[in-house]
Design a protein that fits this description.
Blueprint lengths: L2 H23 L13 E8 H6 L7 H4 L7 E9 L16 H6 L7 H10 L8 H13 L5 H5 L4 E3 L1 H11 L8 E6 L2 E9 L10 H4 L8 E3 L4
Antiparallel strand pairs: 1-2, 1-5, 3-6, 4-5
Length: 222
């Protein structure tokens, strides 16, 4: 093999590796200053699916029998058009008053602390204001009645879950939410919202991680 041919092959291989890394980096956190982001993602976890897919190992309080949890807030995440900020250093610890502001939103206090540290700290909001925003975002989304009436495990297409949410949230349109699955179970829905939380909005980068399975299990609450 000539030196020129070898150099050409190395150039192509190096170029391909850079392209692959660039595509992967879109899903990783990016450095940011608090308050600098483009929109929010409201992540609503389907608690029975989280527990059925192994979540009980790290969320015993959430997954114990008799709690009857359905969709719970996983988080309200600031996002860039590509990527997201994470773990911003604000020097703002969570006070008991802030924790009280989050009551009834998240399934556990441990998740409250985690979400503030990893996501809320990047919003530029105080802890209390951030959890007030979480409450506002959650109240803006109606959950379809089918999930409340579910009595037995069913196989459902992810697109039908999306359409059910669109039916009861008229301003929510295709391209504005992603259905997530794990181990064949519904895990959560991720709904994209404007920075002022007044509107739903498109989010192509978020949709890239949506569930690709033709059907998934939807388990009733415990």
């Amino acid at each position: 093999m000539t030196a020129a041919r070898l150099l050409a092959l190395l150039t192509v291989a190096f170029g391909l590796s850079l392209g692959g890394a660039g595509a992967q980096e879109r899903s990783f956190p990016r450095p940011s200053q608090p308050g600098v982001f483009d929109f929010y993602v409201l992540a609503l976890s389907w608690s029975p699916g989280f527990c059925a897919a192994g979540g009980g190992e790290r969320g015993r309080e959430q997954c114990q029998s008799g709690v009857h949890l359905g969709f719970v807030v996983h988080g309200l995440w600031p996002q860039f058009e590509k990527g997201y900020p994470s773990d911003c250093d604000t020097g703002r610890p969570l006070s008991r008053m802030a924790l009280d502001a989050a009551k009834g939103l998240f399934p556990t206090e441990g998740l409250v602390r985690h979400e503030w540290r990893r996501h809320g700290s990047c919003t530029g909001r105080s802890p209390q204001d951030y959890f007030a925003d979480v409450r506002q975002a959650r109240s803006a989304v109606k959950v379809p009645d089918e999930f409340e009436r579910l009595k037995r495990e069913e196989e459902v297409a992810p697109v039908d879950i999306q359409r059910a949410f669109e039916r009861v949230n008229p301003r929510l349109r295709p391209g504005m939410m992603a259905v997530q699955c794990s181990r064949g179970y519904l895990q959560e829905v991720r709904i994209c919202m404007s920075k002022d939380l007044r509107e739903f909005r498109p989010c192509p980068d978020v949709l890239r991680s949506a569930c690709k399975a033709p059907s998934i299990k939807v388990t009733p609450s415990l």
